[in-house]
Each structure stands twice: as structure tokens, then as C-alpha cells.
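Continuing the series of single-chain predictions for the mutant panel. This is the parent chain; the variants come on the following pages.
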Amino acid sequence: MPAKKLAEFLNSNQVKYVTITHSTAYTAQEVAALAHIRGQDMAKTVIVSLDGKLAMAVLPASKHVDLGLLKAMTGAKSVALATEAEFRGKFPECETGAMPPFGNLYQVPVFVDESLTKDKEISFNAGTHNELMRIAYADFERLVQPTVTRFSAVRAA
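Parent structure:
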């Protein structure tokens, strides 16, 4: 079952979504493969620390966060990947590492890589390591109001 807070939020905003259950997987690329979704269409949520404050960097599973680009685009003095210990308690109803990209539900700013804006729909972890949701990108953008910028790089082979 998707994170209760997320499902209630989507339902209260009349957002149509699909929930897909899959075998347990811990990386966005594994989830995409199990659900037969292109890595470009699977939005992964990476928790980063911008000047000591948590933020979500949301990007395609097929890419990785370029911390230098994120630093330049946000104007932060320091940017780093957050440790699990730093963010575990911030998303109490979610399994660690399976947070949906709805930082607005947790008072965490959201940065979306511009490449995701080209997708009609996006899929993302629904708070567990065995379930994802798919919604229209337009609904996601309307509800979350993320900062859209460019901060991803293609994974090295």
C-alpha cells in the first residue's frame, strides 16, 4: 500500500494514479526493470544536503546527480548526498530509500531535473521497496511545484 499521506494527498486533489506492485528492489534502475519501465520514465528521489538543509533531487533512474551542477544551479555553498542517518526520521511512513518525490508533504524542497519535464507520465517509489506509482507529470508539477533545473549526468558505463 502506498504511503498513506501520499495516497490521501493524491486522492484529495483528484489525481488519477496507478499503483504497481513488484518484487522487492532497492535501486531505481532495478525497480524500472521489474516494472518494465524505461529508466528515463522512472523518477528517483535522491536526498541531498544543501548548506546543511535537506532537499530532494528528483531525476530519471538512468542518470545520476551531478553535485557540481546542483551546487551551481541552487547557489548553495555546500552540496552533498545526505546520509541515511540524516534523513531517516524525516519520512517516518516510508522505508528508507523509497521516499516518493513529494517533499511538500514533508517540508523538504524539491528540485526536479529538467529532463523529467519532457515525460507525459512519471513513475516513482510509493514509500516502499515493492510498490511504485505512476501519475501524469503535469499533476506532479502542479501539486509539488518543484524548482526545475538541470543537475543530472548520464551514468558512466
